[in-house]
Amino acid sequence: MNSPPEPPSSAERPAVTDAELLTAHINGDPHAFSEIVKRHRDRMWAVALRTLGDPDEAADAVQDAFVSAYRKAGTFRGEAAVTTWLHRIVVNACLDRMRRKSVRPVADDELIEAAERDTPMPDQTGEREVSMEVSAALKLLPTDQRAALVLVDMMGYSVEDAAQVLEVPSGTVKSRCARGRAKLAPILSHLRNRSDLSRVSSAKGAELRDG
Amino acid sequence: MTGDTHYDLEILAELAEGLLDAGTARQVREHLAVCDPCGELLADLAAVREVLAATPTPAMPMGVALRIDKALAAEAGSARGGGVGLAEPPNWDELMRDSPWEQSPRELEPVRLGVVSDDGTIVPAKRKDARRRRWAMPTVAAAAAAAVVGTAVLSTNLLTAGGGGTIASGHQQLHTGTASSPPKVDKRARAYALTDSGHNYSDQELRQPLEGFLGPAPIVGGGSSDIDVVDKCVSRVANRTKLKVFAVDQGQYNGSEAIIVTSWKNKANKTLRVDIVDPFNCKSLRKSTVGRW
User: Fold this and answer.
1) Do the chains contact at A55 and B209, CB–CB below 8 Å?
2) Which of A83, A102, A121 is the last residue of a domain?
3) What one-character DSSP code corresponds to residue B126?
4) Which of A82, A102, A122 represents a domain boundary (last residue)?
5) What per-residue confidence (pLDDT) applies to B178?
6) How far, in Å, CA of B123 to CA of B117, rounded?
7) Where are the beta strands (DSSP E) in B11-105?
8) Does residue A122 sit in the same domain as residue A206?
9) Average pLDDT over every residue of B124-138
10) Looking at chain A from residue 40 to 69, which residues have their Cβ under 8 Å from any Cβ of chain B?
11) Is the same domain home to A114 and A126?
12) Which domain holds residue A121?
């Protein structure tokens, strides 16, 4: 799986592959699975947090996913990378949670209204604004579009990798991404305009900007 | 198609993703060449990708990682029929007792009406969210409760030792003891939750919702000498900000010892002011920022 650059802590990874660790775990090595968890928990957390938009829910989902992976390691057949398999379990745990809460699809005008309502306070830095508004906006997307955008646009996975994780054709991932971006554009465009402004941070810049 | 008919965002997003058939794609491109508003929309779509890609992805909070280790250790134990799991797991139940996620929302009853008992009388329903509320309970209440328990044990011992004491005198002692303790307790009373996670915070983490960081660590009780130091710094911060301090954690900031002080800026919005000071001179280690719970 083409992944974003690895964190430095796993620089020694080539020594033992994920697949070897998983085999060791199936054969009863009591430490193998916790090594797999250590290697991938940050990325799994990021996927769950961005997909669910709520730290408590994300913690539950990641825990369910790792426990479930622990139990069904024996069913892993090596047809995909271990990371793809883990991602799939995490994403499915998130989607299950969202479905159980039966999130109602939201109409476009509601999206914009919600974005205006959730507009953060003016004394926040540009980067924080981005993070908060993105979380709020993502929550308003249908679950399938949200999951696709988290994997492709936020986590930087290729469409093909995301398709493997989500177990749908690549074309489906592309169209979910396209529809999701179309819904987010009206919301995040106002963010885009404002972050352009906030880049003018010096007093002189503000003078130029405000005339 | 040119002139006064425009394309909507969805068509433009599909164009960008290469999903349109060749004929439609050519038409849209020809329109884009002459239509500024549609070009703007296409730029908005590109901005969505950039904004999403630029949003930082946080590392898993320590508390969540510990909790997963615990769940897997339990799993290992049940799979192997006993304690053969991970070596000597600490007492997680105790460590994680106050974590917000230890209280399942499913346990909460949405409506707290009375229930009709077997004999037909109406019994007020008990609050089931006592544990969740505990997180917000002022320390003075906790300390007072502890004082009552302590005194009760003492009284019982006296009672046993005395042999001939009556229950009434036991109660008497209990009340006396409780009444005399509040002045002592008040000195230690804190209106904020104090934790000692030892976590090394980074700027990036402090931009994440802080409940994941400040929530999971066990609450520190009274009595440690550090607490006076923390108290001193907290009151200095409070004097400066004129805000109500909500939660305080002892940890590190970019590798140096630090006290993380969060105060409610707007409780409804869950927004906090985050001040980071060194524990020696209570000087700010960085500019205060706004955080979220």
Assistant:
1) yes
2) A102
3) P
4) A102
5) 42
6) 6
7) none
8) yes
9) 45
10) 41-46, 49-50, 55-56, 58-60, 62-63, 66-67
11) yes
12) 105-211
